[in-house]
Amino acid sequence: MGILKDKVAIVTGASRGIGRAIAEVFAREGAHVVICGRKQDTLDQVAREIGPAVKPVVCHVGRIDQIESMIGTTAREFGRIDILVNNAGTNLAHGPCLEMDEAQFDKMVEINVKSAFRLVKLVAPGMCDRGSGSIINIASMSGLRPQVHSLLYSMTKAALIMMTQSYALELGPRGVRVNAIAPGLIQTALSEYYWRDQQRSSELFARQPIPRIGQPAEIAEVALLIASERGSYMTGQTVVVDGGLLLALL
Ligand SMILES: NC(=O)c1ccc[n+]([C@@H]2O[C@H](COP(=O)([O-])OP(=O)(O)OC[C@H]3O[C@@H](n4cnc5c(N)ncnc54)[C@H](OP(=O)(O)O)[C@@H]3O)[C@@H](O)[C@H]2O)c1
Which residues contact 162 (CB under 8 A, 6 or more apart)? Predict the structure, then answer.
């Protein structure tokens, strides 16, 4: 029997990469998983590949109407939401800090931070009413250490980590756990710039205690622990899953 049997989960940004891996692992463990992204055909393809436990729903997490519609669809079909994974994120504004403009600032905040705020506001009340729920925010090690040319990404991920702690403090007494995962370099489309170039990646991994790139499934198994009852005494934490890279940067 799966450890998420009959749980209902929403995983944002699950048409590829880390989100898709989380959806796969949750489905393997018996959950019903609503996956979202911006494109119907890629979501449908993922749903076909993972199986009937997955329900694809198009939702741009920067649009409140689409978020409301996804929550409504989930509530109508499954009656409740037990697990929320705020995974969708972007790194569209990469470059020297003084070259960042207000439009980039707003976009990064909207997708990486405000989306989580909006989703928690809609999902957490039901969890509080039932006295049970697990919310997982996918942050980044960049939210714990600054990186050159990563002002807006680091800033938004740091905000997500503090949101995690603030929600955990208030929602814990109502039965809702809120945690974050801070991945290091994971092999996905988002991080291609860092791993595609052989020289850049070998320099990075030479210093890392586990000297290789991480895989999306290695984040998904940690998300499973936090989402399930096995993580029942964890809240407000940011679990760093980075092959030890942060240690090497100290
Ligand atoms: N990969 C890494 O090394 C790494 C490290 C630390 C943290 N992270 C974090 O992990 C999370 C997942 O990243 P990833 O590496 O798996 O990225 P990815 O492979 O690029 O996947 C991103 C997913 O998010 C969806 N998405 C993007 N913008 C969206 C939006 N506005 N609304 C709804 N869905 C949206 C994408 O689908 P569509 O394009 O079809 O919408 C896709 O399914 C992000 O929060 C990222 O910051 C990644």
Answer: none
CB-side neighbour CA atoms (13 Å) of 129: 7
Q: Where are the domains of the chain?
A: 8-187+216-241
The answer to whether 227 and 136 are in contact (CB under 8 A) is yes
Distance CA 220, CA 209 (A): 21
Under 8 Å between Cβ of 238 and 226 = no
Q: Which CATH class is domain 8-187+216-241?
A: alpha beta
Report the atom number in ligand 1 closest to the C-alpha of 153. Answer: 47
For 164-199, what is each residue's pLDDT tens digit?
999 999 999 999 999 999 999 999 999 998 899 888
For ligand 1, atom 7: residue with the closest CA:
140
pTM above 0.85, yes or no: yes
**In the annotation, is 233 catalytic?**
no
Write out pLDDT tens, residues 36-73.
999 999 999 999 999 999 999 999 999 999 999 999 99
Cα within 13 Å of Cα(165), Cβ side:
8
